[in-house]
Specification:
The complex is a heterodimer of chains A (379) and B (321).
Chain A: H1 2-19, E1 30-37, H2 44-63, E2 71-78, H3 83-95, E3 101-103, H4 108-121, E4 125-127, E5 142-144, H5 151-163, E6 168-174, H6 178-193, E7 197-204, H7 212-220, E8 225-227, H8 232-244, E9 251-253, H9 261-266, E10 274-277, H10 286-299, H11 305-324, H12 329-337, E11 342-344, E12 347-351, E13 357-358, E14 361-367, E15 370-377
Parallel strand pairs in A: 1-2, 1-3, 3-4, 4-5, 6-7, 6-8, 8-9, 9-10
Antiparallel strand pairs in A: 10-14, 11-12, 12-13, 14-15
Chain B: H1 2-52, H2 60-85, H3 91-121, H4 127-146, E1 156-157, H5 165-183, H6 186-196, H7 198-203, H8 208-234, E2 236-237, H9 244-257, H10 262-278, H11 286-300, H12 307-320
Antiparallel strand pairs in B: 1-2
Helix pairs in contact in B: 1-5, 1-8, 1-9, 1-10, 2-3, 2-4, 2-8, 3-8, 5-8, 6-8, 9-10
Classes of the chains: A alpha/beta (379), B mainly alpha (321).
């Protein structure tokens, strides 16, 4: 009796697994590319923006005749924002759909979960916007088209020293956050090299709400600006408390500030502060204005940085396939590695020997509650 | 003797399948098969506490996470020196030693966590226990987020791949055999008596707290093992894989399979894991379709897919006696 129930159970297991096999492989006249992202789940907006950007790039390339005489098709899979799902869908895209290259993910955690699979199976993967340095360290098939976290420290150091002509700057960093510490270290090092002085270096932890002790000590040193490479929640509070302590200097920061809630939390206290970001919709360059216009026509929304990076990731991949002259994954990888001076909407991109993008960042200023483009800083 | 031969046969079959399986069914199906195995261990172990002992725990992902990170950290940090010690062995044997070391650590630490949570909270009944276990799961996740040595919010990357189809299904068999033997023993009757009527069980001399803690600890240990097997298969762990939603997934598996039925837990894990993959064709509507399926199962078979089947079988056995 007992035995038979087990046989039945294992039979069920076999049939269900086997029925999930079969179908859908690339036709001879198509080039298949896989995309994975969070189309549902808590970070769904990230995945959808990126997908819109990739869709636009895809339609453009297919309207101009495709690649190597073939139509390009992108197969999109949802990973629900869960790392283990990302790994499963990437395995599916590679082995079942037989894609020749992969686009994704936004969040570094999902890219890190999926990257070992792509690396093992020798399929190139281009991440549009995973900024954690560990991502491309997985192996030589993993690329990214955004700059890595510490680069923004360099950008803001240059901006402070050269564009704003500052000499005395204070730093207030989130000591428990990799991202914040990375930015702060690179900023301090480069600002000193450029002849500046760090007059104070204070710390806080994510979740803190009272910063008056640190700000009082910073005020005593009379800095010309304060570098706060944290996330928008704390930055907003820090700005308000700084203002109430009578600190009138601008704050400087990185792309962790980029959120519609930033100005809501910080209010008028943030007026005149600067932060670095991937791109700006106000950038006057014609390529960016065309992209922003097309995107608005198509989706009825302003493209955020993720849409721009998704668009560029797809364009850089298409360009590599064109240069490789073949849809062989290894040939595409080799061509990707040689990407040089590719003009995209998020800047002129070159991929370095560590498969990271070397590209400019833009600096934005909070002005009348809006984000205004100030200038582009090259690496 | 006969039992020993059966086990030997099972190990040989699994070992013979392992080297060719990936090529035979493709890496995608292989991956799903392994995840099905991990989920079977989770479901069968949670069924011990939720189905047989009747205690509503919703913190299974917490023990799963403890096991996954313990095993990964042990192998990651102690692995190189263990490899030096066992240098004379072939690589396969070294891998096996490492994996078993990791899984042993995972089972012990997850079991201790189960004991620490179980002793104070299993005196509570019903909803209260659910809240305590839910809280525990979240505490574990937040702790992991803040420990830098195991990756924190960045995730734990670079875990060596040691587990595979062979190991996962070997532990599936071990889990099923252990839980099956346990529930058919006098311990099992004590568990079931607590589920059916706690006051009556106590009146009959069953030390209810002790048996509840025992069932909870064993359940946690297997969840820890499932975590270890998972981490060494995916090579990367992130706290987002262990939110309370992951606990609910395991509960869904045992409820659609049929609470208090081992076959049901196995079938539930298979249906849930494979079902999500089969529904992939629906794109963004996949989760809606899948949820509709779950609702339909609950309307037409509230006892779970194999719930009454197990019940009828028990009656027949009782009748035969």
């Amino acid at each position: 009796m007992k035995r038979r129930s087990w046989i039945q159970a294992s039979f069920l297991l076999c049939t269900t697994v086997l029925t999930s096999c079969s179908r859908d492989q690339g036709q001879g006249d198509e080039i298949l590319i896989g995309e994975y992202g969070s189309l549902t789940g808590t970070t769904a907006t990230f995945g959808i923006s990126t997908m819109n950007g990739i869709e636009m790039a895809l339609d453009e390339v297919n309207q101009s005749g495709g690649l190597l005489g073939k139509t390009v098709r992108v197969i999109v899979e949802d990973d629900q924002g869960r790392p283990e799902e990302a790994q499963t869908v990437v395995t599916k895209l590679i082995t079942r759909d037989r894609v020749v290259a992969l686009l994704g993910e936004v969040a570094s955690s999902r890219t890190l979960a999926a990257a070992p699979v792509a690396q093992q199976m020798g399929i190139p993967m281009v991440s549009p916007s995973s900024t954690n340095p560990a991502v491309t360290e997985v192996g030589d098939f993993i690329f990214r088209v955004c700059f890595i976290d510490p680069f923004q420290g360099l950008v803001m150091a240059k901006f402070a020293a050269q564009s704003l002509q500052l000499t005395d700057v204070a730093v207030l960093r989130d000591i428990k956050n990799d991202y914040s510490v990375g930015l702060a270290d690179v900023f301090v090092e480069n600002f000193r090299t450029l002849g500046g002085t760090i007059v104070a270096d204070e710390g806080y932890s994510e979740g803190d709400t009272d910063f008056s002790a640190q700000l009082t000590s910073i005020r005593a040193r009379r800095p010309q600006a304060i570098f706060v490479p944290g996330y928008y929640t704390e930055v907003g509070l820090i700005a308000r408390q700084a203002k109430s302590l009578g600190i009138e200097v601008p704050l400087l920061g990185g792309d962790g500030w980029d959120s519609p809630s930033l100005v809501e939390i910080g209010g008028a206290a943030l007026e005149g502060s600067y932060f670095s970001n991937h791109y700006s919709v106000d950038d006057p360059s014609p390529a960016i204005q065309k992209f922003v216009g097309d995107y608005r026509d198509r989706y009825g929304a302003t493209p955020d940085a993720l849409a721009g990076l998704g668009y560029d990731a797809a364009q850089i991949l298409f360009d590599a396939i064109r240069r490789a002259g073949s849809a062989d994954p290894t040939a595409i990888r080799d061509a990707l590695a040689q990407t040089k001076d590719f003009a995209g909407v998020t800047g002129v991109t070159t991929l370095d020997e560590n498969r990271n993008a070397v590209k400019p960042a833009v600096v934005l200023q909070v002005n009348d509650g809006k984000l205004v483009y100030v200038e582009t800083i090259n690496p | 003797m006969r039992r020993g031969l059966l086990w030997l046969g099972a190990v040989l079959v699994l070992a013979a399948l392992e080297p060719n399986l990936r090529g035979l069914i493709g890496a995608y199906n292989y991956q799903i098969l392994v995840l099905v195995g991990v989920n079977i261990i989770l479901a069968v172990s949670l069924n011990l506490i939720n189905g047989f002992t009747g205690q509503f725990s919703i913190g299974h992902a917490g023990f799963y996470a403890v096991g996954a990170y313990t095993s990964a950290a042990l192998v990651f940090y102690a692995g190189p020196s263990v490899r030096v010690l066992t240098a004379s062995l072939p690589t396969v044997a070294q891998d096996a030693v490492l994996l078993l070391m990791g899984l042993l650590g995972a089972a012990l630490v997850a079991g201790l966590a189960g004991l620490a949570v179980g002793i104070p909270s299993l005196r509570l009944r019903g909803d209260y226990l659910a809240i305590v276990t839910l809280g525990f799961g979240e505490i574990i996740r937040v702790l992991i987020l803040n420990i830098d040595a195991i990756g924190g919010a960045r995730g734990f990357a670079g875990i060596p791949q040691l587990s595979n189809f062979f190991w996962v299904y070997l532990f599936v068999l071990i889990t099923i055999a252990t839980v099956h033997n346990l529930v058919s023993s006098s311990y099992g009757r004590a568990f079931v008596s607590i589920r059916d009527d706690e006051i009556a069980a106590e009146a009959m001399g069953v030390d209810t707290t002790r048996f509840k803690v025992m069932s909870f600890v064993i359940s946690s240990m297997f969840a820890g093992i499932a975590g270890g097997l998972f981490g060494h298969f995916t090579m990367y762990l992130h706290p987002n894989s262990f939110t309370f939603v992951a606990s609910f997934y395991v509960i869904i598996m045992i409820v659609i399979g049929g609470l208090g039925s081992i076959e049901g837990a196995v079938l539930g894990a298979v249906v849930f894991t494979v079902g999500l993959e089969v529904f992939r064709g629906f794109g963004a509507f996949r989760l809606i379709n899948f949820s509709v399926l779950l609702v339909l199962i609950m309307i037409y078979r509230p006892q779970g897919l194999l719930g009454s089947w197990t019940l009828i079988k028990r009656r027949k056995q009782a009748g035969a006696m």
